[in-house]
Write a sequence for this structure.
């Protein structure tokens, strides 16, 4: 047998084998790689008859699998029925049949390899991944806040607990809509052309000024409430006695 696919296992014109003989075992190894090609134990036999083989011809050529740990190739094992077991990972082995024999059947302790199945992750890695996703830090909270849209004045007031007596913005919007409706009625009888377009531009400008005025008034009210709260706090601190601090 000559295994192809790796530089160390290319076909050799003059193969070199090492035969190890002990008192009860005869083994044949491939030189330099410690791969056992054949082994035979002799129990009660006292005389061993050997014959010289003049020519060594490979009986089968096969390529190594794609995922093979080349450093552990010396640990590969060959069986007499045409199977080879190779390390494909640190804790993973695969069994291949390199000689076709339809009579060979998988034993009870043999699990056929399925390349489509993946080993599930270790439970400790899953727990670490879950903790990293569920744990929220101050930096994550700030990053999420920057991803959201900016708050309006009314949304900020609702978050800070400020309650207004009347929604001036809604009242101003109603006045603007009524003014628009009145202008639409006057368009049919009023001037047309350049003067009508000029009137529309003036109306749009007035609406923008009203919205800007509303925003300034809201900001002034908010600043007034803040200053009042600071003043009340300073007065309460001033009325405290020395034993209350």
């Amino acid at each position: 047998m000559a295994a192809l696919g790796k530089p160390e296992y290319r076909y050799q014109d003059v193969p070199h084998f090492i035969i190890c003989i002990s008192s009860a075992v005869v083994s044949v190894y491939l030189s330099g790689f410690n791969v056992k090609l054949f082994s035979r134990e002799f129990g009660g036999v006292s005389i061993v008859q050997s014959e010289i083989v003049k020519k060594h011809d490979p009986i089968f050529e096969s390529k190594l699998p794609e995922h093979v740990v080349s450093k552990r190739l010396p640990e590969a094992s060959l069986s007499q029925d045409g199977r080879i077991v190779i390390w494909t990972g640190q804790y993973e082995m695969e069994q291949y049949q390199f000689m076709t024999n339809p009579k060979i059947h998988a034993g009870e302790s043999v699990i056929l390899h399925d390349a489509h199945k993946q080993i599930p992750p270790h439970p400790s890695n899953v727990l670490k991944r879950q903790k990293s996703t569920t744990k929220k830090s101050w930096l994550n909270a700030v990053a999420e806040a920057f991803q959201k849209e900016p708050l309006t004045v009314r949304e900020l007031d609702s978050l800070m607990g400020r309650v207004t007596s009347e929604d001036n913005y809604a009242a101003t919007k109603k006045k603007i809509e009524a003014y628009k409706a009145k202008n639409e009625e006057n368009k049919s009888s009023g001037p047309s052309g350049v003067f009508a377009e000029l009137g529309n531009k003036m109306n749009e400008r007035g609406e923008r000024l009203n919205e800007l005025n509303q925003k300034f008034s809201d900001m002034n009210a908010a600043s007034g409430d803040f200053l009042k709260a600071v003043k009340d706090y300073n007065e309460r601190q001033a009325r405290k006695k020395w034993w209350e601090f």
Remarks:
- Residues 167 and 175 are 13 Å apart (CA to CA).
- The mean pLDDT is 69.
- DSSP finds five helices and eight strands in the chain.
